[in-house]
């Protein structure tokens, strides 16, 4: 039995009290009991949004908007959503998970875009012990040799990051019901794997697709993608990563190298050059010695592999698997390693056959490089929607083929034994494969050669099961998988897009070298860690970055100048705070108190008040002067008689509205009507 089921039943708990400086664990502890007590009946997602079942959700949102300024609120809500989703696939906990997600985005809808960005990009603090050998708490690029061994130990544990997050999510249920004697450090340790994650990152890991598809959230994601929101304002040894709005007058132009749009664009150009070198090597196909183009191909391959490894470590391995294009990258690396081994072995033994096999293996690279080049097309809604559909169809296809393989092996063994040496196992395998893929006539031609008596009925059964039953079932399964994903096309596309952006922006490295230039610090600077302090090496990396990436920065500057990206297309240009900072210090102040609906308020009153305002509001035309400074009421320039007639008509309309309002009040006394949903982006297109 769950820990919360032991709580005494009675009056519903009060609305959670969250202080502005409460820790992430305390915020989770404050929110968890409310969802457990108030969401006590299973409801669908649409019912929570549009019916009276979501009344407690609206009350919580009103309360949080007025009273909560804790920057970890969105992180806590999405973590609880993940918690309830992992407990139970359906039922009451799924309802609670949907409630957490709805509260998160409705809270953001009630804020300004700048404040919404603050909450979405708040990074949960993490404790870092500062040693005497390291004057800086960051151990990524500032550490000397001794702390670097600690970094290697942390790196080896990155592959367990998602497992640790899942374990922490499951253990959340014990937080709200732990005894007072439990030490605070133990409670913090329960959710310590979430340290360093932002709200958007937690949403991506927890598959909060409805949250990520909201317009207010997508504005933040688009701001990161286009570079309107940046995490580094200058390239200096003392620079810290923090979300902030881009100001082209103050920010360092070299920080544009960290914009995801440019990272992905130059990544595609790098893969295109990789494919060009691949074709040069395959066209030359020199078996006697290694050519210049082949040397360049090896350099490109090493840079590609190192960039992929860096991306895996920077994203903490939790986003890496979410991007389906990383699967192509891994296959490209495996094929490249196989080619290098066979090529070296062939040259060492002077064996032309091994060398030819090496080039044949290298030819397989084009099968994955060409789609990888066009991966940028997945940013378009049409292609971005097809990718999740294709992924779901492939998963169902693999599951279904296990059943096909079992039946195929049974028929293969039976037909081979009945043939009594007339057909080998290899020949019989290919015959049955051809029959399975539509070659029924071939099966009927050889059925008497297999066995005069049992061959014909056996082949008829095989043809009917494969070409009729299994193929038809497979088509139906694929159609259902496609329909299941396409029904949430917008959510699926925006989830893929959000992961694509976050994967390129979660790195904590100050200096980001584009491949193949990334090999320069790997070969020339990294070995110097043994002899020089980390602070000096970091300055060296910055200097080398500026010297080697001047052409790339120049191209970015010309692009932004041509499109006036930094001045006119800035999504947050009119919402920038004084110092363009999105850190914890920029947490919005509490908004003025507004009427809220507590648990005892009726939804009828809310609807009646809203209808009263709509029905009794004067219908006037509002315009602006040339300066747009103030609004004025526009009166028609007619004679007095026309104005009297118009006023008489308005009085009649007002009387009709009053009668309609009276009928509405009478109708409310006999039934229950939920207040309309005030979310503009609750529904997915």
What this model shows, in words?
With 685 residues, the protein is mostly helical. The chain folds into 5 domains: 1-125 and 157-212, no CATH class; 227-242 and 251-258 and 511-570, no CATH class; 261-378; 381-490; 603-668. The chain is built from 27 helices and 4 strands. The strands form 2 sheets. A two-stranded antiparallel sheet has the order 1-2. Strands 3-4 form a two-stranded antiparallel sheet.
Q: Could you give a quick summary of the protein structure above?
A:
This protein has 685 residues and is mainly α.
Termini Cα gap? 40 Å
Largest sheet: 2 strands, antiparallel
Strand order of the largest sheet: 1-2
| Mean pLDDT over all positions | 76
Residue share in helix:
55-70%
Tertiary shape: globular
Helix vs. strand class? mainly alpha
Strand content: under 5%
Number of helices: 27
> How many distinct domains?
5
Radius of gyration: 32 Å
Query: Which parts are unreliable, with pLDDT below 50 for 5 consecutive residues or more?
Result: 1-12, 128-159, 177-182, 573-580, 590-640, 670-685
Tell how many strands the DSSP assignment holds.
Answer: 4
List keywords for this structure.
685 residues; mainly alpha; two-stranded antiparallel sheet; two-stranded antiparallel ribbon; 4 strands; globular; Calcium channel YVC1-like C-terminal transmembrane domain-containing protein; TRP_calcium_channel; transmembrane
Task: Tell me the layout of helices and strands.
Layout: H1 24-38, H2 45-50, H3 55-67, H4 73-87, H5 92-109, H6 113-120, H7 145-156, H8 161-170, H9 184-190, H10 199-205, H11 209-212, H12 215-226, E1 229-230, E2 244-245, H13 260-284, H14 292-314, H15 325-349, H16 352-363, H17 365-373, H18 381-419, H19 425-436, H20 440-450, H21 455-486, H22 489-505, H23 519-525, H24 534-548, H25 550-563, H26 603-616, E3 622-624, E4 631-633, H27 640-668
Antiparallel strand pairs: 1-2, 3-4
């Amino acid at each position: 039995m769950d820990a919360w089921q032991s709580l005494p039943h009675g009056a519903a708990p009060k609305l959670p009290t969250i202080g502005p400086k409460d820790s992430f664990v305390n915020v989770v502890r404050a929110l968890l009991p409310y969802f457990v007590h108030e969401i006590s009946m299973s409801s669908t997602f649409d019912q929570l949004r549009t019916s009276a079942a979501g009344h407690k959700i609206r009350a919580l949102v009103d309360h949080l908007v007025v009273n909560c300024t804790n920057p970890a609120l969105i992180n806590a809500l999405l973590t609880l959503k993940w918690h309830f989703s992992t407990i139970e696939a359906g039922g009451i906990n799924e309802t609670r998970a949907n409630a957490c997600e709805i509260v998160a985005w409705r809270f953001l809808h009630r804020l300004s875009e700048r404040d919404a960005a603050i909450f979405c990009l708040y990074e949960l603090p993490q404790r870092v012990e500062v040693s005497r050998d390291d004057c800086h708490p960051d151990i990524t690029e500032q550490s000397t040799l001794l702390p670097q061994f600690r970094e290697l130990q942390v790196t080896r544990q990155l592959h367990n990051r998602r497992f640790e997050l899942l374990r922490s999510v499951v253990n959340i249920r014990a937080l709200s019901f732990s005894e007072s004697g439990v030490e605070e450090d133990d409670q913090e340790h329960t959710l310590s794997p979430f340290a360093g994650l932002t709200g958007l990152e937690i949403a991506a890991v927890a598959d909060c697709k409805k949250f990520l598809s909201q317009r207010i959230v997508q504005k933040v994601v688009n701001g990161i993608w286009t570079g309107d929101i940046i995490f580094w304002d200058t390239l200096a040894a003392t620079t810290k990563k923090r979300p902030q709005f881009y100001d082209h007058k103050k920010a360092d132009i070299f920080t544009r190298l960290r914009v995801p749009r440019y990272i992905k664009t130059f990544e595609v150009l790098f893969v295109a050059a990789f494919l060009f070198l691949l074709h040069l090597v395959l066209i030359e196909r020199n078996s006697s010695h290694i050519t210049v183009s082949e040397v360049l191909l090896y350099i490109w391959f090493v840079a590609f592999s190192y960039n992929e490894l860096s991306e895996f470590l920077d994203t903490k391995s939790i986003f890496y698997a979410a991007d389906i294009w990383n699967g192509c990258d891994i296959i490209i690396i495996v094929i490249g390693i196989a080619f290098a081994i066979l090529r070296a072995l062939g040259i060492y033994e002077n064996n032309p056959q091994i060398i030819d096999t090496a080039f044949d293996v290298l030819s397989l690279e084009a099968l994955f490089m060409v789609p990888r080049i066009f991966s940028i097309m997945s940013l378009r809604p049409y292609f971005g929607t097809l990718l999740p559909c294709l992924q779901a169809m492939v998963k169902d296809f693999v599951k279904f083929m296990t059943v096909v393989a079992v039946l195929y092996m049974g028929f293969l063994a039976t037909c081979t034994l009945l043939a009594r040496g007339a057909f080998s196992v290899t020949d019989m395998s290919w015959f049955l494969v051809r029959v399975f893929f539509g070659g029924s006539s071939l099966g009927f031609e050889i059925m008497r050669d297999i066995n005069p008596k049992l061959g014909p009925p056996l082949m008829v059964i095989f043809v009917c099961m494969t070409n009729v039953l299994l193929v038809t079932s497979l088509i139906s399964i694929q159609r259902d998988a496609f329909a299941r994903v396409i029904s949430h096309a917008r959510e699926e596309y925006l989830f893929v897009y959000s992961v694509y952006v976050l994967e390129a922006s979660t790195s904590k490295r100050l200096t980001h070298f584009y491949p193949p230039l990334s090999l320069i610090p790997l070969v020339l600077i990294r070995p110097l860690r043994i002899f020089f302090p980390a602070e000096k090496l970091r300055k060296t990396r910055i200097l080398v970055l500026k010297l080697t990436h001047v052409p790339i920065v120049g191209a970015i500057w010309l692009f932004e100048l041509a499109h006036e990206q930094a001045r006119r297309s800035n999504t947050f240009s009119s919402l920038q705070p004084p110092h363009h900072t999105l850190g914890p210090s920029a947490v919005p102040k509490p908004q003025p108190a507004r009427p809220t609906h507590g648990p005892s308020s009726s939804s009828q009153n809310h609807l009646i008040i809203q209808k009263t305002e709509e029905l009794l509001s004067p219908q006037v035309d509002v315009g602006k002067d040339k300066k747009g400074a103030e609004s004025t009421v526009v009166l028609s320039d007619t004679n007095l008689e026309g104005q009297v007639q118009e006023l008489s008509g308005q009085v009649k309309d007002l009387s009709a509205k009053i009668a309609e309002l009276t009928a509405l009040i009478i109708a409310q006394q006999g039934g229950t009507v939920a207040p309309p949903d005030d979310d503009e982006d609750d529904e997915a297109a």
